[in-house]
Specification:
mainly alpha; Rossmann fold
Length: 129
């Protein structure tokens, strides 16, 4: 299995450089590749900030990538939960933080927006210290 960097994933998804897109596509489709949660998060940020992927397009794009038979992701259950919560209105970093909290029962933050949005989702209890 081969871990890949954000730039390989972005080339594959954004298709903005013909030569690098071709190389990234061949790699991702022919090798078993592994994505860390940080690569996934950075990919989402780059696609949104640099390439203008809208919120509604980003989650399905990431799900399609993670659905490839050659792609594995770190903590796949937490990532799937985070993508669900992202589609329901949480920011992806916040959703990943919460979904990665594992066995904990509470999550502390000063982020008022996260506190408000998470109340309507089945997340760990969100508290403000």
């Amino acid at each position: 299995m081969l871990a890949v960097d954000t730039n390989v994933v972005v080339r594959y998804l954004a298709r903005d450089d013909v030569e690098q897109t071709d190389r990234a596509t061949k790699l991702i489709r022919s090798e078993q590749v592994w994505l860390s949660k940080t690569v996934l998060l950075e990919t989402a940020w780059v696609l949104g900030a640099t390439y203008g992927f809208a919120h509604e397009r980003l989650a399905p794009t990431l799900r399609d990538l993670l659905g490839l038979p050659t792609v594995s992701v770190e903590d796949d259950l937490a990532v799937a939960q985070a993508l669900d919560w992202y589609e329901q209105g949480l920011d992806l970093p916040d959703a990943l933080h919460l979904a990665s909290a594992g066995f904990t029962m509470r999550f502390a933050t000063f982020d008022r927006i996260l506190l408000r949005k998470a109340k309507r989702l089945p997340t760990p209890e969100i508290v403000s210290p």
